Amino acid sequence: MNKDQVKGTAEKVKGKVNEAVGRATDNPARELKGDIQQEAGQARKNVGDMKEAAKDMAKDVKRHH
């Protein structure tokens, strides 16, 4: 797991908390903030996933040559 995956996952968790708190306290702005955080976290995690996949592919290429 790389830092983008970790930070993305952490941001998604923070977003879920903000969304839940916003919903529970009838605070649409906080709920929206949570949604946005979750989307940003997923995007960052996706970047990390792509980096890991590229690293794994590079290792496979080296092994086969």
TrEMBL record:
Domain CsbD-like span(s) in chain numbering: 4-56
Region (Disordered): 1-65
UniProt feature, compositional bias: Basic and acidic residues: 1-17, 46-65
Record-linked InterPro entries: CsbD, YjbJ_sf
UniProt similarity note: Belongs to the UPF0337 (CsbD) family.
Protein name stated in the entry: CsbD-like domain-containing protein
